[in-house]
Write a structure and sequence with these properties.
Blueprint lengths: L2 H11 L3 H23 L2 H18 L9 H37 L21 H12 L3 H12 L4 H8 L3 H20 L27
């Protein structure tokens, strides 16, 4: 850990708000990238990224400098994402139950509505490829999504991923291998035999404003 980072940590422990803004500038993009790839929704990702930095500011005293600060920060981000995923899943189930009930009361009007067929993918470049990639990542289960985001999006080492997730080396490598196979299978048929990008591209930029992690 550099002396500059140690100084920043001391200032954070003193609840220096300017240090908090410096922390945002240093790590905002990478934290948002993780939250977006994990959650697949810009608004949710921005909310969770902001929660991560607020949580770090409040709990900085618990960081014992036994690992890199960025490793600890990303662990906080991953844990916040996992909690939000669980919350969204519960909300989805509740909303689905309410929709089912309303649909029955409407004599099947909603359930009987025609479903518009998805348009076939054509030139998968730019925004189209981004959408396809995020959908493929979003369809991974949580355990596989975490490792592929940390390794192939954030380009972290296996050792760092082990520290962030608390998983042994072999488990991380095994999950990463399976996640890559699933992604390649889902994406390969859409890219006309072209090689998939590695590392995977960063998430679309988050909105910036007035010193907060996200608005």
């Amino acid at each position: 850990m550099s002396e500059l980072e140690r100084t920043l940590l001391r200032r954070l422990r003193d609840r220096d708000e300017r240090a908090f803004r410096e922390l945002l500038e240093m790590h905002r993009d990478r934290v948002y990238n993780i939250t977006f790839r994990m959650l697949g929704n810009r608004a949710e990702a921005e909310d969770v990224a902001q929660e991560v930095f607020i949580s770090v500011f409040k709990t900085i005293d618990t960081f014992r400098e036994e690992s890199k600060f960025s490793t600890w920060l990303y662990r906080v981000a991953v844990n916040h994402c996992k909690n939000r995923i669980k919350y969204l899943a519960r909300r989805h189930d509740r909303d689905r139950d309410e929709l089912d009930e309303n649909s029955q009361q409407a004599n099947g009007a909603i359930l009987g509505a025609p479903v518009r067929a998805a348009q076939p993918d054509r030139a998968l470049e730019g925004a189209q490829m981004e959408k396809l990639l995020q959908e493929a990542i979003g369809n991974l289960d949580d355990d596989h999504r975490i490792v592929v985001v940390l390794r192939d999006v954030e380009d972290l080492s296996i050792e760092e991923i082990c520290e962030i997730t608390g998983l042994p080396d072999g488990t991380v490598k095994s999950r990463l291998h399976r996640a890559r196979l699933v992604l390649r299978k889902k994406l390969q048929r859409h890219v006309s035999g072209e090689a998939l990008p590695s590392p995977l591209p960063a998430a679309p930029a988050a909105k910036r404003g007035r010193g907060s992690a996200a608005e």
